[in-house]
Amino acid sequence: MNASLGNSASSRDIASVLHPYTNFTAHEKTGPLVITGGNGIYVSDESGKNYIEGMSGLWCASLGFSEKRLIAAATKQLETLPFYHNFSSRSTNPTIDLATKLLEMAPVPMSKVFFANSGSEATDSAIKMVWYYHNAIGRPEKKKIISRKRGYHGVTVASASLTGLPGNHKLFDLPIDRILHTETPHFWREAQPYESEEDFATRMAEALEDLIQAEGPETIGAFIAEPIMGAGGVVVPPRTYFDKIQEVLARYDILFIADEVICGFGRTGRLFASETFRLKPDMITVAKQLSSAYQPISALFINEKIYAALKKGADEVGVFGHGFTYSGHPVAAAVALETLKIYEEDSIVDHVREVMGHFQKRLRDLNKFDKIGETRGYGLIGAFELVADKCAKTPFAPTGWAGKAVAELCLTEGVILRAMGDSIALCPPLIITDKQIDDMFDKIEIALTKWHQSI
Ligand code: PMP
Protein backbone atom coordinates (compact mmCIF):
# COMPACT_ATOMS: atom_id res chain seq x y z
CA MET A 1 0.00 0.00 0.00
CA ASN A 2 2.76 2.46 0.89
CA ALA A 3 5.18 1.52 -1.88
CA SER A 4 4.54 4.87 -3.42
CA LEU A 5 5.04 6.87 -0.21
CA GLY A 6 7.27 9.78 -0.97
CA ASN A 7 6.31 10.00 -4.62
CA SER A 8 4.39 13.04 -5.52
CA ALA A 9 0.90 11.50 -5.81
CA SER A 10 1.15 9.96 -2.34
CA SER A 11 2.55 12.99 -0.58
CA ARG A 12 0.16 15.34 -2.37
CA ASP A 13 -2.72 13.09 -1.33
CA ILE A 14 -1.64 13.17 2.32
CA ALA A 15 -1.25 16.93 2.11
CA SER A 16 -4.59 17.63 0.53
CA VAL A 17 -7.31 14.94 0.54
CA LEU A 18 -9.59 14.37 3.52
CA HIS A 19 -10.52 10.73 3.00
CA PRO A 20 -13.95 9.36 3.94
CA TYR A 21 -13.93 6.46 6.41
CA THR A 22 -10.20 6.69 7.02
CA ASN A 23 -7.98 6.84 10.08
CA PHE A 24 -6.00 10.00 9.44
CA THR A 25 -3.01 9.09 11.63
CA ALA A 26 -2.56 5.78 9.82
CA HIS A 27 -3.13 7.46 6.45
CA GLU A 28 -0.37 9.98 7.09
CA LYS A 29 2.00 7.03 7.63
CA THR A 30 0.94 4.71 4.82
CA GLY A 31 -0.44 7.05 2.18
CA PRO A 32 -3.13 6.12 -0.31
CA LEU A 33 -3.55 3.15 -2.59
CA VAL A 34 -3.85 5.03 -5.86
CA ILE A 35 -6.02 3.13 -8.34
CA THR A 36 -5.29 4.14 -11.89
CA GLY A 37 -7.06 1.69 -14.17
CA GLY A 38 -9.81 -0.89 -14.47
CA ASN A 39 -10.57 -3.87 -16.68
CA GLY A 40 -13.58 -6.15 -16.12
CA ILE A 41 -13.62 -7.22 -12.48
CA TYR A 42 -10.02 -6.03 -12.03
CA VAL A 43 -8.51 -2.69 -11.05
CA SER A 44 -4.83 -1.78 -11.11
CA ASP A 45 -2.69 0.57 -9.07
CA GLU A 46 0.00 3.00 -10.17
CA SER A 47 2.69 0.30 -9.90
CA GLY A 48 0.73 -1.81 -12.40
CA LYS A 49 -0.37 -4.40 -9.83
CA ASN A 50 -3.77 -5.98 -10.60
CA TYR A 51 -6.46 -6.67 -8.04
CA ILE A 52 -9.76 -8.53 -8.20
CA GLU A 53 -12.25 -5.93 -6.97
CA GLY A 54 -14.08 -8.25 -4.59
CA MET A 55 -16.27 -5.38 -3.37
CA SER A 56 -17.24 -3.83 -6.74
CA GLY A 57 -15.62 -0.69 -5.31
CA LEU A 58 -18.22 0.12 -2.67
CA TRP A 59 -20.87 -2.52 -3.53
CA CYS A 60 -21.58 -0.68 -6.75
CA ALA A 61 -19.56 -1.34 -9.95
CA SER A 62 -21.82 -4.22 -11.00
CA LEU A 63 -20.62 -4.32 -14.62
CA GLY A 64 -16.96 -4.06 -13.70
CA PHE A 65 -14.58 -1.28 -14.63
CA SER A 66 -14.45 -1.16 -18.43
CA GLU A 67 -18.00 -1.35 -19.85
CA LYS A 68 -17.70 0.48 -23.18
CA ARG A 69 -21.44 0.87 -23.65
CA LEU A 70 -21.67 3.01 -20.52
CA ILE A 71 -18.82 5.20 -21.67
CA ALA A 72 -20.56 5.62 -25.04
CA ALA A 73 -23.90 6.44 -23.37
CA ALA A 74 -22.27 9.16 -21.24
CA THR A 75 -20.37 10.61 -24.20
CA LYS A 76 -23.45 10.69 -26.42
CA GLN A 77 -25.52 12.46 -23.78
CA LEU A 78 -22.72 14.92 -23.00
CA GLU A 79 -22.64 15.81 -26.69
CA THR A 80 -26.42 16.11 -26.97
CA LEU A 81 -27.28 17.95 -23.76
CA PRO A 82 -24.74 17.90 -20.93
CA PHE A 83 -27.09 19.30 -18.34
CA TYR A 84 -30.60 20.33 -17.71
CA HIS A 85 -32.64 20.25 -14.55
CA ASN A 86 -36.04 18.96 -13.47
CA PHE A 87 -37.30 21.86 -11.34
CA SER A 88 -40.54 23.69 -12.22
CA SER A 89 -41.83 21.07 -14.70
CA ARG A 90 -38.65 21.07 -16.82
CA SER A 91 -37.53 17.62 -18.00
CA THR A 92 -35.13 15.77 -20.26
CA ASN A 93 -35.59 12.60 -22.31
CA PRO A 94 -33.12 10.44 -20.32
CA THR A 95 -34.93 11.35 -17.08
CA ILE A 96 -38.33 10.49 -18.55
CA ASP A 97 -37.09 7.23 -20.09
CA LEU A 98 -35.31 6.15 -16.92
CA ALA A 99 -38.29 6.85 -14.65
CA THR A 100 -40.60 4.99 -17.04
CA LYS A 101 -38.25 2.02 -17.17
CA LEU A 102 -37.82 1.92 -13.39
CA LEU A 103 -41.57 1.93 -12.81
CA GLU A 104 -41.89 -1.02 -15.22
CA MET A 105 -39.22 -2.90 -13.29
CA ALA A 106 -40.47 -2.06 -9.77
CA PRO A 107 -41.08 -5.12 -7.57
CA VAL A 108 -44.41 -3.71 -6.30
CA PRO A 109 -46.70 -1.15 -7.97
CA MET A 110 -45.10 2.27 -7.67
CA SER A 111 -46.38 5.64 -8.79
CA LYS A 112 -43.41 7.99 -9.25
CA VAL A 113 -39.62 8.11 -9.14
CA PHE A 114 -37.66 10.92 -7.50
CA PHE A 115 -34.00 11.23 -8.53
CA ALA A 116 -31.03 12.24 -6.39
CA ASN A 117 -27.27 11.74 -6.53
CA SER A 118 -26.42 9.37 -3.70
CA GLY A 119 -27.93 6.77 -1.42
CA SER A 120 -27.79 9.24 1.46
CA GLU A 121 -29.80 11.80 -0.47
CA ALA A 122 -32.38 9.19 -1.44
CA THR A 123 -32.74 8.22 2.24
CA ASP A 124 -32.95 11.86 3.30
CA SER A 125 -35.61 12.47 0.68
CA ALA A 126 -37.57 9.46 1.96
CA ILE A 127 -37.41 10.80 5.53
CA LYS A 128 -38.68 14.22 4.41
CA MET A 129 -41.45 12.61 2.39
CA VAL A 130 -42.56 10.55 5.42
CA TRP A 131 -42.86 13.75 7.43
CA TYR A 132 -44.55 15.65 4.59
CA TYR A 133 -46.94 12.74 4.00
CA HIS A 134 -48.11 12.61 7.60
CA ASN A 135 -48.52 16.38 7.78
CA ALA A 136 -50.46 16.43 4.52
CA ILE A 137 -52.90 13.72 5.65
CA GLY A 138 -53.48 15.41 9.02
CA ARG A 139 -51.41 13.16 11.31
CA PRO A 140 -48.61 15.54 12.30
CA GLU A 141 -47.71 13.52 15.39
CA LYS A 142 -46.83 10.37 13.37
CA LYS A 143 -43.22 11.31 12.62
CA LYS A 144 -40.80 8.94 14.30
CA ILE A 145 -38.87 6.60 12.03
CA ILE A 146 -37.57 3.24 13.18
CA SER A 147 -34.37 1.83 11.77
CA ARG A 148 -32.21 -1.03 13.04
CA LYS A 149 -28.98 -1.28 14.97
CA ARG A 150 -26.20 -1.97 12.40
CA GLY A 151 -28.42 -0.77 9.55
CA TYR A 152 -26.73 1.57 7.05
CA HIS A 153 -28.69 4.26 5.25
CA GLY A 154 -26.17 7.04 4.62
CA VAL A 155 -24.21 9.84 6.23
CA THR A 156 -26.18 13.09 5.86
CA VAL A 157 -27.52 14.42 9.16
CA ALA A 158 -30.82 12.56 8.92
CA SER A 159 -29.69 9.45 7.04
CA ALA A 160 -26.70 9.01 9.39
CA SER A 161 -29.21 9.15 12.23
CA LEU A 162 -31.02 6.18 10.69
CA THR A 163 -27.71 4.38 10.24
CA GLY A 164 -27.31 2.23 13.33
CA LEU A 165 -23.53 2.19 13.73
CA PRO A 166 -21.77 3.92 16.65
CA GLY A 167 -19.02 5.42 14.46
CA ASN A 168 -21.63 7.38 12.52
CA HIS A 169 -23.10 8.90 15.68
CA LYS A 170 -20.30 9.37 18.19
CA LEU A 171 -18.77 12.90 18.15
CA PHE A 172 -21.30 13.95 15.47
CA ASP A 173 -24.07 14.62 18.01
CA LEU A 174 -26.31 12.11 16.25
CA PRO A 175 -28.87 10.64 16.01
CA ILE A 176 -31.32 13.52 15.75
CA ASP A 177 -34.58 13.11 17.65
CA ARG A 178 -37.54 11.21 16.18
CA ILE A 179 -35.19 8.42 15.04
CA LEU A 180 -35.29 5.06 16.86
CA HIS A 181 -33.39 1.79 16.43
CA THR A 182 -34.67 -1.73 16.90
CA GLU A 183 -32.81 -5.06 17.05
CA THR A 184 -30.53 -6.60 14.40
CA PRO A 185 -31.80 -9.89 12.96
CA HIS A 186 -28.38 -11.57 13.08
CA PHE A 187 -29.26 -15.12 14.11
CA TRP A 188 -25.71 -16.42 14.66
CA ARG A 189 -24.70 -13.50 16.86
CA GLU A 190 -27.94 -12.49 18.57
CA ALA A 191 -30.06 -15.64 19.00
CA GLN A 192 -30.35 -17.40 22.36
CA PRO A 193 -28.83 -20.90 22.38
CA TYR A 194 -32.28 -22.58 22.51
CA GLU A 195 -33.91 -20.41 19.81
CA SER A 196 -34.83 -21.68 16.34
CA GLU A 197 -34.57 -19.22 13.42
CA GLU A 198 -38.35 -19.03 13.46
CA ASP A 199 -38.47 -18.24 17.20
CA PHE A 200 -35.72 -15.67 16.74
CA ALA A 201 -37.62 -13.98 13.91
CA THR A 202 -40.72 -13.88 16.13
CA ARG A 203 -38.71 -12.31 18.94
CA MET A 204 -37.31 -9.66 16.55
CA ALA A 205 -40.84 -8.74 15.45
CA GLU A 206 -41.96 -8.63 19.09
CA ALA A 207 -39.06 -6.31 19.92
CA LEU A 208 -40.23 -3.99 17.14
CA GLU A 209 -43.80 -4.12 18.45
CA ASP A 210 -42.63 -3.44 22.02
CA LEU A 211 -40.76 -0.36 20.81
CA ILE A 212 -43.81 0.87 18.91
CA GLN A 213 -46.00 0.32 21.98
CA ALA A 214 -43.53 2.03 24.30
CA GLU A 215 -43.28 5.11 22.06
CA GLY A 216 -46.99 5.18 21.18
CA PRO A 217 -48.10 3.78 17.80
CA GLU A 218 -49.64 7.16 16.92
CA THR A 219 -46.09 8.64 16.89
CA ILE A 220 -44.43 6.09 14.58
CA GLY A 221 -44.43 7.15 10.93
CA ALA A 222 -42.16 4.69 9.15
CA PHE A 223 -39.77 1.76 9.37
CA ILE A 224 -36.69 1.46 7.13
CA ALA A 225 -34.61 -1.64 6.42
CA GLU A 226 -32.08 -3.03 4.00
CA PRO A 227 -33.27 -6.48 2.84
CA ILE A 228 -29.73 -7.71 3.53
CA MET A 229 -27.73 -5.41 5.82
CA GLY A 230 -24.54 -4.45 4.01
CA ALA A 231 -22.16 -2.14 5.82
CA GLY A 232 -23.36 -3.44 9.19
CA GLY A 233 -21.59 -6.72 8.40
CA VAL A 234 -23.74 -8.42 5.72
CA VAL A 235 -26.62 -9.74 7.77
CA VAL A 236 -29.12 -12.00 6.02
CA PRO A 237 -32.33 -12.14 8.04
CA PRO A 238 -34.09 -15.39 8.96
CA ARG A 239 -36.46 -16.55 6.22
CA THR A 240 -39.70 -15.36 7.85
CA TYR A 241 -38.31 -12.23 9.53
CA PHE A 242 -39.74 -9.70 7.09
CA ASP A 243 -43.14 -11.45 6.93
CA LYS A 244 -43.44 -10.99 10.69
CA ILE A 245 -42.07 -7.43 10.65
CA GLN A 246 -44.52 -6.42 7.92
CA GLU A 247 -47.45 -7.81 9.94
CA VAL A 248 -46.46 -5.50 12.81
CA LEU A 249 -46.11 -2.49 10.48
CA ALA A 250 -49.54 -3.14 8.96
CA ARG A 251 -51.12 -3.42 12.43
CA TYR A 252 -50.00 0.12 13.32
CA ASP A 253 -50.31 1.75 9.90
CA ILE A 254 -46.57 2.38 9.60
CA LEU A 255 -44.96 3.09 6.24
CA PHE A 256 -42.24 0.70 5.05
CA ILE A 257 -39.14 1.95 3.24
CA ALA A 258 -36.95 -0.73 1.63
CA ASP A 259 -33.36 0.42 1.23
CA GLU A 260 -32.26 -1.48 -1.90
CA VAL A 261 -29.15 0.67 -2.39
CA ILE A 262 -26.93 -2.43 -2.23
CA CYS A 263 -29.39 -5.21 -3.06
CA GLY A 264 -31.22 -3.60 -5.98
CA PHE A 265 -30.57 -4.76 -9.57
CA GLY A 266 -29.63 -8.39 -9.24
CA ARG A 267 -27.42 -8.74 -6.18
CA THR A 268 -29.64 -11.46 -4.64
CA GLY A 269 -30.37 -13.26 -7.93
CA ARG A 270 -33.61 -11.33 -8.41
CA LEU A 271 -33.93 -7.86 -9.84
CA PHE A 272 -34.89 -6.55 -6.40
CA ALA A 273 -34.35 -8.15 -3.00
CA SER A 274 -37.92 -7.07 -2.21
CA GLU A 275 -38.88 -10.05 -4.42
CA THR A 276 -36.40 -12.34 -2.67
CA PHE A 277 -37.76 -11.46 0.78
CA ARG A 278 -41.44 -10.83 -0.15
CA LEU A 279 -41.34 -7.14 0.79
CA LYS A 280 -44.24 -4.81 0.06
CA PRO A 281 -42.66 -1.39 0.64
CA ASP A 282 -44.32 2.01 0.21
CA MET A 283 -41.00 3.50 -0.86
CA ILE A 284 -37.77 1.99 -2.22
CA THR A 285 -34.36 3.62 -2.42
CA VAL A 286 -31.85 2.52 -5.06
CA ALA A 287 -28.40 3.80 -6.12
CA LYS A 288 -25.02 2.15 -6.76
CA GLN A 289 -25.85 -0.65 -9.28
CA LEU A 290 -28.48 1.62 -10.85
CA SER A 291 -25.67 3.07 -12.96
CA SER A 292 -23.00 0.46 -12.17
CA ALA A 293 -21.48 3.48 -10.37
CA TYR A 294 -20.29 5.03 -13.65
CA GLN A 295 -22.27 8.14 -12.75
CA PRO A 296 -23.56 9.24 -9.33
CA ILE A 297 -27.31 8.73 -9.31
CA SER A 298 -29.92 7.43 -6.89
CA ALA A 299 -33.67 7.07 -7.05
CA LEU A 300 -36.56 6.90 -4.64
CA PHE A 301 -39.71 5.06 -5.70
CA ILE A 302 -42.94 6.17 -4.02
CA ASN A 303 -46.33 4.48 -4.27
CA GLU A 304 -49.62 6.12 -5.19
CA LYS A 305 -50.66 6.63 -1.57
CA ILE A 306 -47.54 8.73 -0.89
CA TYR A 307 -47.81 10.58 -4.19
CA ALA A 308 -51.44 11.54 -3.52
CA ALA A 309 -50.45 13.01 -0.16
CA LEU A 310 -47.44 14.89 -1.59
CA LYS A 311 -49.71 16.34 -4.28
CA LYS A 312 -52.21 17.47 -1.66
CA GLY A 313 -49.41 19.01 0.43
CA ALA A 314 -47.88 20.79 -2.56
CA ASP A 315 -51.29 22.20 -3.49
CA GLU A 316 -51.52 23.63 0.00
CA VAL A 317 -48.02 25.17 -0.01
CA GLY A 318 -47.71 26.05 -3.71
CA VAL A 319 -44.92 23.68 -4.81
CA PHE A 320 -43.23 20.60 -3.38
CA GLY A 321 -40.20 22.32 -1.86
CA HIS A 322 -37.62 19.63 -2.33
CA GLY A 323 -35.10 18.68 -5.03
CA PHE A 324 -31.44 18.80 -5.95
CA THR A 325 -29.80 20.75 -8.76
CA TYR A 326 -28.71 17.43 -10.22
CA SER A 327 -31.95 15.47 -9.61
CA GLY A 328 -32.38 13.44 -12.80
CA HIS A 329 -29.12 14.73 -14.33
CA PRO A 330 -29.38 13.72 -18.00
CA VAL A 331 -25.87 12.22 -18.25
CA ALA A 332 -26.34 10.13 -15.11
CA ALA A 333 -29.82 9.13 -16.26
CA ALA A 334 -28.54 8.11 -19.72
CA VAL A 335 -25.84 5.95 -18.14
CA ALA A 336 -28.34 4.37 -15.73
CA LEU A 337 -30.72 3.64 -18.59
CA GLU A 338 -27.93 1.96 -20.56
CA THR A 339 -26.97 -0.03 -17.43
CA LEU A 340 -30.53 -1.34 -17.15
CA LYS A 341 -30.48 -2.24 -20.86
CA ILE A 342 -27.27 -4.22 -20.37
CA TYR A 343 -28.79 -6.05 -17.39
CA GLU A 344 -31.64 -7.11 -19.66
CA GLU A 345 -29.76 -7.83 -22.89
CA ASP A 346 -26.93 -9.71 -21.18
CA SER A 347 -29.33 -11.52 -18.79
CA ILE A 348 -27.24 -10.37 -15.85
CA VAL A 349 -29.73 -11.51 -13.21
CA ASP A 350 -29.81 -15.00 -14.76
CA HIS A 351 -26.02 -14.96 -14.72
CA VAL A 352 -26.05 -14.08 -11.01
CA ARG A 353 -28.37 -17.02 -10.36
CA GLU A 354 -25.97 -19.28 -12.27
CA VAL A 355 -22.83 -18.32 -10.33
CA MET A 356 -24.19 -17.49 -6.88
CA GLY A 357 -24.32 -21.13 -5.74
CA HIS A 358 -20.63 -21.52 -6.45
CA PHE A 359 -19.82 -18.20 -4.77
CA GLN A 360 -21.73 -19.17 -1.63
CA LYS A 361 -20.13 -22.64 -1.60
CA ARG A 362 -16.61 -21.25 -1.77
CA LEU A 363 -17.55 -18.74 0.95
CA ARG A 364 -18.93 -21.52 3.22
CA ASP A 365 -15.72 -23.53 2.63
CA LEU A 366 -13.87 -20.82 4.60
CA ASN A 367 -15.51 -22.25 7.74
CA LYS A 368 -12.62 -24.71 7.81
CA PHE A 369 -10.37 -21.96 9.18
CA ASP A 370 -9.96 -22.00 12.93
CA LYS A 371 -10.60 -18.29 13.45
CA ILE A 372 -13.61 -17.94 11.20
CA GLY A 373 -16.72 -17.95 13.34
CA GLU A 374 -19.35 -17.51 10.65
CA THR A 375 -19.61 -17.32 6.89
CA ARG A 376 -22.85 -15.79 5.69
CA GLY A 377 -24.46 -14.35 2.62
CA TYR A 378 -26.95 -14.74 -0.17
CA GLY A 379 -26.69 -14.30 -3.91
CA LEU A 380 -23.47 -12.50 -4.78
CA ILE A 381 -22.95 -10.86 -1.41
CA GLY A 382 -21.36 -12.37 1.65
CA ALA A 383 -19.04 -11.99 4.62
CA PHE A 384 -16.87 -14.01 6.93
CA GLU A 385 -16.43 -13.06 10.57
CA LEU A 386 -13.15 -13.54 12.42
CA VAL A 387 -13.36 -14.57 16.07
CA ALA A 388 -10.88 -15.28 18.86
CA ASP A 389 -12.74 -18.47 19.80
CA LYS A 390 -14.82 -20.31 17.22
CA CYS A 391 -17.02 -22.34 19.60
CA ALA A 392 -17.69 -19.53 22.08
CA LYS A 393 -17.99 -16.95 19.22
CA THR A 394 -15.70 -14.69 21.27
CA PRO A 395 -14.88 -11.52 19.34
CA PHE A 396 -11.32 -10.28 19.07
CA ALA A 397 -10.34 -7.47 21.44
CA PRO A 398 -9.93 -4.76 20.49
CA THR A 399 -12.42 -5.08 17.64
CA GLY A 400 -11.12 -4.50 14.16
CA TRP A 401 -7.43 -5.40 14.21
CA ALA A 402 -7.99 -8.92 12.88
CA GLY A 403 -10.31 -7.73 10.10
CA LYS A 404 -7.82 -5.06 9.09
CA ALA A 405 -4.92 -7.52 9.09
CA VAL A 406 -6.76 -10.07 6.95
CA ALA A 407 -8.01 -7.43 4.49
CA GLU A 408 -4.41 -6.19 4.14
CA LEU A 409 -3.16 -9.73 3.44
CA CYS A 410 -5.91 -10.25 0.85
CA LEU A 411 -4.81 -7.01 -0.78
CA THR A 412 -1.24 -8.29 -0.95
CA GLU A 413 -2.56 -11.46 -2.62
CA GLY A 414 -4.44 -9.30 -5.12
CA VAL A 415 -8.02 -9.19 -3.82
CA ILE A 416 -9.71 -6.04 -2.57
CA LEU A 417 -12.22 -6.76 0.21
CA ARG A 418 -13.74 -4.58 2.90
CA ALA A 419 -13.26 -5.05 6.64
CA MET A 420 -16.16 -3.92 8.78
CA GLY A 421 -14.82 -4.52 12.25
CA ASP A 422 -13.79 -8.17 12.16
CA SER A 423 -16.25 -9.12 9.45
CA ILE A 424 -14.89 -9.06 5.91
CA ALA A 425 -17.37 -8.35 3.15
CA LEU A 426 -17.43 -9.70 -0.40
CA CYS A 427 -19.61 -8.16 -3.07
CA PRO A 428 -17.96 -8.75 -6.46
CA PRO A 429 -19.15 -7.34 -9.79
CA LEU A 430 -22.23 -9.20 -11.03
CA ILE A 431 -20.32 -10.18 -14.19
CA ILE A 432 -17.87 -12.38 -12.25
CA THR A 433 -17.44 -15.93 -13.65
CA ASP A 434 -17.09 -19.25 -11.81
CA LYS A 435 -13.40 -19.32 -12.71
CA GLN A 436 -12.85 -15.81 -11.35
CA ILE A 437 -14.75 -16.76 -8.19
CA ASP A 438 -12.32 -19.67 -7.73
CA ASP A 439 -9.36 -17.40 -8.33
CA MET A 440 -10.66 -14.90 -5.78
CA PHE A 441 -11.28 -17.51 -3.08
CA ASP A 442 -7.97 -19.29 -3.76
CA LYS A 443 -6.21 -15.99 -3.05
CA ILE A 444 -8.34 -15.34 0.05
CA GLU A 445 -7.47 -18.81 1.35
CA ILE A 446 -3.75 -18.12 0.87
CA ALA A 447 -4.14 -14.87 2.83
CA LEU A 448 -6.11 -16.61 5.60
CA THR A 449 -3.54 -19.41 5.84
CA LYS A 450 -0.71 -16.88 6.18
CA TRP A 451 -2.64 -14.96 8.83
CA HIS A 452 -3.47 -18.09 10.86
CA GLN A 453 0.24 -19.02 10.77
CA SER A 454 1.19 -15.55 11.97
CA ILE A 455 -1.02 -15.29 15.06
N1 PMP B 1 -28.03 2.75 1.91
C1 PMP B 1 -27.26 1.66 1.86
C2 PMP B 1 -27.88 0.31 2.08
C3 PMP B 1 -25.90 1.77 1.59
O1 PMP B 1 -25.13 0.68 1.56
C4 PMP B 1 -25.35 3.05 1.36
C5 PMP B 1 -23.88 3.24 1.04
N2 PMP B 1 -23.04 2.21 1.30
C6 PMP B 1 -26.19 4.15 1.45
C7 PMP B 1 -27.53 3.97 1.71
C8 PMP B 1 -25.65 5.54 1.27
O2 PMP B 1 -25.25 5.71 -0.04
P1 PMP B 1 -24.20 6.88 -0.44
O3 PMP B 1 -22.87 6.47 0.11
O4 PMP B 1 -24.27 6.87 -1.92
O5 PMP B 1 -24.70 8.14 0.15
Automatic annotation (TrEMBL):
It comes from the Bacteria. InterPro entries: Aminotrans_3, Aminotrans_3_PPA_site, PyrdxlP-dep_Trfase, PyrdxlP-dep_Trfase_major, PyrdxlP-dep_Trfase_small. GO terms for biological process: biotin biosynthetic process; gamma-aminobutyric acid metabolic process. Keywords: Aminotransferase, Pyridoxal phosphate, Transferase. Its cofactor is pyridoxal 5'-phosphate. GO terms for molecular function: adenosylmethionine-8-amino-7-oxononanoate transaminase activity; pyridoxal phosphate binding. PROSITE patterns: AA_TRANSFER_CLASS_3 (PS00600). Belongs to the class-III pyridoxal-phosphate-dependent aminotransferase family. This is Aminotransferase. It comes from Thalassospira profundimaris. The lineage of its organism: Bacteria, Pseudomonadati, Pseudomonadota, Alphaproteobacteria, Rhodospirillales.
